[in-house]
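Build the 3D complex.
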Amino acid sequence: MNNAPLSPTPRPVCVLGLGLIGGSLVRDLREAGRPVFGWNRSTATVEAATADGVDASTDLVATLHRAAAQDALLVLGVPVPALPTLLEAVAAHAPDCGLTDVVSVKGDVLETVTAHGLAGRYVGGHPMAGTADSGWDATTVGLFRDAVWVVTHDNAQDDPAWVDVWRRVVEMAETTGAVVVPARTAAHDSAVARISHLPHVVAEALSITADRGGALALSLAATSFRDGTRVAGTAPHLVQAMCENNRDALVTALDETLALLTSARDALTDPDDGIGTMAHDGHDARLRYEAFAGRTRETPANRPLIRVQPGAPGWLDQLHYAETLGARIDVF
Ligand code: NAP
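Done.
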């Protein structure tokens, strides 16, 4: 957690959607003593969150009026299909609030935000953390600790108000204990297609293939199967929304994987060939990943660090450079 002193009148965060990600964000901000309130569509979630001490409501219009009056930073914590209705309400009732989101794809969100005339106050976000569980009951303090929180900047405005939103989004992410890695929308969507959406599709295929092996296959499955298919436990509607909203980048990554699998299959059907090269290449690739991100969740990551002064001359070039390195940033 960031233990930096609180400013005298900290502006609140208003989280719209108190599911796993939005609800865990609320819990972290509360834990850090930051002012936060939220809205959720279903009454059951609002009742559960309120019982846990959270300031939450099912009244969207009233919540947005409050956010506008208190200059709150709005956080969209819902899946892509829910965005148009929510953004329509934001545009009508809190158009001047800073706006961010936690959605797993960034292209569609930027497009929808722009279509609602809200890009001037929008900074995209994506915390690279989660579990296979959903809803308020799955929320937890510390979900984002040491995780990467991607913050986008391709709609950067030469406007102090936009820079202020960018700074607030970074500060909010750091309050949860996350490290901020800047990336533009296309670069983010291409990267997450490879490291998140493709693994979801592959995990579904692995699970289906194992299941078709019958009871004995499932009975024998041990840790490697559990690890390789963990994300297939995610709620199907979320997987569908993630993957279908990043189709182009996912198809590119899937084509590469299919070519590798086809070549492995061809090699296995040829008694004079084998999968040695693939096994070595895959092993080397995994070691490179471990060197970058740490061998386990507990071991330290080795991302480069770039110090950035928001709004200073050349600061966006620094963010682009950080994107190419996958570097985290430190804001001063
Ligand atoms: P979740 O636990 O299932 O929560 C979904 C939230 O969205 C709930 O508050 C739900 O409200 C609300 N919602 C769904 N459809 C809605 C609609 N049509 N109108 C209004 N509200 C609606 O999901 P989550 O994992 O927190 O995912 C939320 C966002 O975080 C998604 O955009 C996802 O891409 C992103 N994300 C997820 C992960 C992950 O690992 N799960 C990681 C990073 C980012 P109700 O209670 O009324 O259903």
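The mean pLDDT is 94.
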